[in-house]
Here is the input.
Amino acid sequence: MTHTPGILQPLGPGLARLLAPNPSPFTGEGTWVHLIGTERLAILDPGPADPAHLDAFVAAVGGRPVDAILVTHTHRDHSPAAAPLAERLAAPVWGCAPLVVPGNQEAGFDTSYAPDRILADGETVEAGGATIEAVHTPGHTSNHLCFALGHRLFSGDHVMGWSTTVVIPPDGNMGAYMASLQKLQARSETLFHPAHGEPVADPQRLMRGILGHRLQRERQLLRLVGEAPATLADLTQRAYPALDPRLRPAAEATALAHLITLEERGAVTCVQGLWKV
Here is the structure.
């Protein structure tokens, strides 16, 4: 299914979404921005600071009061619109903590993000006529939050509807990512709304599949390292032989995240750029 950016799409009573115009091999069709509420609103993951996107979003709000702009994490396809929308809509920004990775800042991070309120794991807020719970799910980034509302969970990039999530060290952590998936498995929400892709009507099944895929990839990398010492680039090539070249840096980063987790367990080690058992 193909969607048009800038068009408000109802998802049910008190819930709609709008697609930002930022398609890519990493975002799918783009970032979905969710609007919670009817007479009053909460905005979830405002997206990139694209002028056309900002204008379309203000038009979709239609003059209704906005109680809060909620942010799951600070990648540049999620949070940069928060500040300009906060100014135009007279709304506060609540959500994840700001994040800086000293000495090795991933290019995809929004370093200008400055929330009015940082939400802790399990903290609830009243916005858009609803009670919304923040759920800390580190892994994709260390500051990632999901937001729960009744039977719905807005899963940001932690669980996406079109692809698996990239985990990029040093901030991205594979062990934390898998633990956060298990945390969500223990919750009761039955419908996930990701920031990329379609709503997930059977999230438990999807999360089992993601965990299984990650464990399979871990076993594959451990087997490849066991065959002979190898560089990260060589391991990535052998693990992802038919990968779109545009996605190779992301695949290499995720492979590294797996190797770091294996190293922490004492299963592999890296000496002068060569991974070995």
Summary: The radius of gyration is 19 Å. Helices lie at 51-61, 82-89, 174-185, 203-227, 232-239, 248-264. The chain has a mean pLDDT of 94.
